[in-house]
Amino acid sequence: MRRGLIALAFFVSACSADPVSPLPIDVPIASAPPSSAPAPAPSSVTATSPSPSRTPTIVRPSKPRTKAPRPSVTTTRPRSCLGAVRYDIDLAQTEQLPRSLCFAAGAVLRLIGIGPGEVSIDRPDLASSNYEAGVVDIRFLRAGTVAVTIPRTAEPETITVVVQ
To answer: How far apart are CA 114 and CA 122, in angstroms?
Structure first.
């Protein structure tokens, strides 16, 4: 607390001093006689002549605005791929299963209304399967093609899943 009071006392005493007047500035004369020496480059800071009632004004030249180039957006996955999403299929309400799907790695295919051990995947190195309470979650881990086989009728149906 004492340190704050000392700083406040210093600040108040510094602000209560006499007003500051501008320093005299030498302003270059616009019409100089031509010489053989190259003309100096214009400075980036220009000051106006001080007057007793005005303080010097500093004028900085403005930089031209340029638009930064936008990076080109390229995607490695086609527009038909859904990305890393959860895709639900309710087997009790779906008559026709999709023949193929496209996901990004990390996506989950959720099959609702099926018994344990009925769904099989041909590439366990690319996808993992988990069953709980009539729901099978298949998480796609790496890029590749996985065939998901579902026994719905006399002949099992296969969904080919492309993972990117």
So the answer is: 18
